[in-house]
Amino acid sequence: MKKKLVAMMMVTTLSVSVLAGCGSKTNEPSEGGTTTTKESTGGEETTADATEQPAKTADDTVKIGCVMMNLSNVFYVNAMEAGDAAAEDWNAECIWKGADSKLEEQVALIENFIQQGVDAIFVDPMDAEGIIPVLEKAHEAGITCVSFGNFVDADFCYCIVYDDYNNMYKMGEICGKYIGEEGTVANFIGSPGNYVSDNREAGFKDGITENYANINLLPSQPANWDAALGNSQLTALLAANELDALFCMNDNVTYGLIEAIEASGQDTVVFSNDGDIEACELVKEGTIKADCLTGAKRAGYYGIKTITQIVRGEIDSQKNYLPSHFVMNEDMKKFCEDNGLSDGMSIMTPDEAIYCYDNYREEFGPQS
After folding, report:
1. What residues are paired with 245 via a beta bridge?
2. Domain of 302?
3. Could you tell me if 71 and 137 lie in one domain?
4. Cα gap 368→363, rounded to integer Å
5. Is residue 259 domain-resident?
6. Can you tell me the distance from the alpha carbon of 69 to that of 99, in angstroms, rounded to the nearest whole number?
């Protein structure tokens, strides 16, 4: 097990969970994987403020300029592979560009796409505020703008997101119930201020604190998506605390945490997120009690598919949620069912999740 985890850490340390939740609005996923969004006060459905342009038809190829942080990170490599498959299925052309993790390079690339007259820009912005001026230029030129990652707070910009808050709230409920509604729990986050990190942290925290008064939830540990840093942080926590459970918001850090638990000799139970293939194998054997499948390939395919639907006038919701699935072995699934925790959840076995991870066309393709 230890050698296997070391290998996972080496492969995945560079892979970052980048698809972000959006702001302070209440998420209400609807059928088919898209979501209508309402203000937290219960307002009207939110739609993007699009410049009037004739909608393209299914016979028209949608030209998409894709501006990622970089194209060497494993996440983007997988998202690009699946995005190209979606372009083939949904009559689109994707032009992928990496920005070397520099905002100014993203701005330059988007300006170039404006000159090329693309139909849509798909961007995972380095700076959600700093990217707005150039996206405004694109919008004024009649180009559809879609964020992939950090939420862009602009009425005209659509976004592709996970239902992070609600998923992690449920994970908190499951975790608390599993350890008998009492004990000490640690929570490992990405980095404060990141939309993904903040939404997942808030969901898990509320899932614990709103349901289990006798659980001591320790202050969140910002592992910054780094497995080695997470391992060091947890080693220190385990030296000072008896931990009953921990939650980590991304699998690549979870592998480092499991190593620290094994070295400590404690029986801390683990809950995670991402649904990586390696993590699903750990769910199968019970090392991870529950995970949540998102997946870079699924996100890439779903993102490009959704952009074609937006450009063709088939979708007008500002937030469009990638459907996610909880991953559990049969024992854990039965535990959730017996304790009334499975209502409204999509639960997959590890083998089903491993299959789904790569077979995104069956889930989201034209024949799905």
Report:
1. 185, 269
2. 26-161+298-322
3. yes
4. 6
5. yes
6. 5
| pLDDT tens digit sequence for 62-90 | 999 999 988 887 788 999 999 999 999 99
Q: Which CATH number goes with the domain that contains 125?
A: 3.40.50.2300
Give yes or no for residue 246 having a pLDDT over 90.
yes
Considering the domain boundaries, does residue 133 fall inside one?
A: yes
Tell me the C-alpha to C-alpha distance, in Å, between residue 344 and each of 161, 324, 341: 19, 12, 9
- Check residue 3 and give its pLDDT: 47
Q: CA-CA distances (angstroms) from residue 352 to 189, 281, 293, 343, 348? A: 27, 11, 11, 19, 6
Mean pLDDT of all residues in the chain? 87
Q: Specify whether the CB–CB gap between 217 and 185 falls below 8 A.
A: yes
**Residue 20 falls inside a structural domain:** no
Three-state DSSP at 40 gives: coil
**Reported pTM:** 0.78
**How far is 146 from 317, CA to CA, in rounded Å?**
11
Give the residue among 197, 146, 199 at the shortest CA–CA distance from 320. Answer: 146
| Contact between residue 273 and residue 292 where contact means Cβ atoms under 8 Å apart | yes
Render pLDDT for 196-234 as a digit per residue (tens, 0 to 9).
788 999 999 999 999 999 999 999 999 988 999 999 999
DSSP 135-181: HHHHHHTT-EEEEESS----TTEEEEEE-HHHHHHHHHHHHHHHTTT
Same domain, 65 and 197: no
User: Quick one: residue 210, left, alpha or beta (phi over 0 = left, psi -120 to 50 = alpha)?
Assistant: alpha
Find the mean pLDDT for residues 307-322.
93
- Residue range 111-123, pLDDT digits in tens: 999 999 999 999 9
Which residues are CB-neighbours of 54 under 8 A, at least 6 positions away? none
Contact status, residue 135 vs residue 153, Cβ threshold 8 Å: no
294 C-beta neighbours (distance < 10 Å), count: 26
pLDDT over 50 (residue 45): no
pLDDT attached to residue 151: 81
Residues 273, 19: Cα–Cα separation, whole Å = 12
β-sheet with 157-162: strand ranges across: 92-98, 62-68, 120-123, 144-148, 157-162, 319-322
